[in-house]
Amino acid sequence: MIEKFSTTFIFYWLCTFPSLVQTQTNLFRGYAGKVDGKIDDVITTPLKNDMPFPLVGLGVGNLQRNLVENMIHQGLEAQHRIRTIDTAHQSGNEREVARGIVTGVKAFKESENNDGRVQVHVVTKIWYTYLGYERTKIAIDEIIEDLQDAIKDPNVDLKVTILIHWPRCYDTIPWMDCVKEEEQLPARVKEAGPPPHLDRFNAWKMSWMALEDAYLSADYPVVSGIGISNFDRLELSTLLANARVVPHLIQVNTWTLLHNPTELDICHENGILVQVYNVMNGIMGHVLNNPNAHHHLLMVANQLRKLAILNGTVKKDFKVTTAQVVLKFLVQSKVSVIPKTSNRDRLAENSAVALMQIPDMNMEQMEIVRASMAALLDNKDLAEDVRVTVRFHAQKVDVFVYWVSGDEEERQVAFVPAGDTFEEHTFPGHRFKAYNAQDPDQFKSFVIQGQYGDEVDIQVEL
Question: Which of 243, 248, 297 minimizes the C-alpha distance to 451?
Fold first, then answer.
């Protein structure tokens, strides 16, 4: 049994996250009950305005600029089908994002003999130095200008969601330098409005008004959604109390999934889609220090792999990784994921196609993954481990069973009389030897082939 969480870990909403179907009363132009571009080949969930939003994306913010275009191109290919690209205006790569979308869509259409437009979503974010109404308007215009290649391409149905990256610049965050960053801004930005770090609690409110105006205006038809990032519960509540447009999307760090359950409840109640970043570092970065939690994820990965093979939907060499298990859990819970990578193999592993090949988890598996994620996020391992259950059946003679270490040292673990069975809990790949109790020259060696959670029966005949 999995230990109960020590923290109030409210992941229940992930399992019961409702269909976001409340239609917002506004002047939204981007979606009118139909999809302009092809989007039915990936996992989506409707935003507050009924816009289908692809849940599996690719993060390219702060990726080396020379890699951005090619990674997006590859992500859009038929074997990956990434349809959401996450970046940030501060990363300065939106032109590369647009070019990657154009070339990737072209390659996809050619490979699929597709003569329609392909819908691609871009999520980008306005940096805290651009907070304030007029400064945010400048950022919006810069974003739209930088994405023009994709906006104008006849093969692309581009949908852009613009977020406020941070509600303010924080003196307490070491890598933020509020004064220096303000000094380095272009003159036209400085002249557009007062320094936001001098009005920390109101500048973002004016930015939200600017985003609302852009979203509601016919002048920005490509802006299909607006949202926020790194807002805490109080800031989110303040925004909702005054907003004309409820945020369509909120980006949160993986820690929010553990430590801010109330904020997630607010998102749930208001139909705000949660998109999580830093999953790989926040969760998978702690597996070495928390082997029990890791082994539980490996067990679920093994179960899902077997089920997919049994269903006949994949080849027999199909594999499921622990990272995929975590991403699948989130996507199955209607949480959008945007893993970042510059590695083609990782891109394939984290892609929409790969996650669609993995069967849905049952409630028991969801509970195991949830507990394991909590342990990894807290860097506090589960109390209980899961291993391979091995049963040695002595067929005709009494046997001694030895465990063999990596340096070939043998340690006796059991004496098994003929006709009896000995059960051991061990690890995949571990080695054992079974000796005839009457004749030690007769023995057999065994390598445990099972995976975590498996049960393996070994018939010992000497």
Answer: 297
* C-beta neighbour count of 417 within 10 angstroms: 12
Closest CA to 42 of 3, 102, 99, 83: 83
20 confidence band (pLDDT: 50, 70, 90): very low
Give the pair of three-digit tokens for residue 195: 């320094």
CB atoms within 10 A of CB 292: 17
Phi, psi values for residue 72, rounded to 5°: -65, -45
More confident residue, 8 or 325: 325
Q: Count Cβ neighbours within 10 Å for each residue of 374-409 and write b for 16 or more, e otherwise.
A: bbbbbebbbeeebbbebebebeebbbbbbbbeeeee
Residue 103 CB coordination number (10 Å)? 17
Residue 32, pLDDT score: 35
Locate the domains of the chain by residue range.
12-378, 388-460
Task: Give the closest residue to 26 by CA, choosing from 345, 294, 243, 229.
Answer: 243
User: Please, what is the average pLDDT of the chain?
Assistant: 90
Q: Report pTM.
A: 0.86
CA atoms of 433 and 408, how far apart (whole Å)? 11
Strand spans (E) along 62-114: 84-86
What pLDDT is stored for residue 40 in this prediction? 60
283: DSSP letter = T
| 2, pLDDT greater than 90 | no
Percent of residues, the chain, with pLDDT higher than 90: 84
Question: Per the structure block, which two tokens stand in for 453?
Answer: 């959670």
Instruction: Over range 420-445, report the average pLDDT.
Output: 96
Contacts of residue 133, defined as CB under 8 A and 6 or more positions apart, other chains included, come to: 193, 206, 207, 209, 210
Distance CA 313, CA 357 (A): 7
Of residues 22 and 145, more confidently modeled: 145
Output the CA angle 353-354-356, nearest 5 degrees. 65
What CATH number belongs to 388-460? Answer: 2.60.40.780
CATH architecture of 12-378: Alpha-Beta Barrel (3.20)
Beta bridge partners of 446: 432
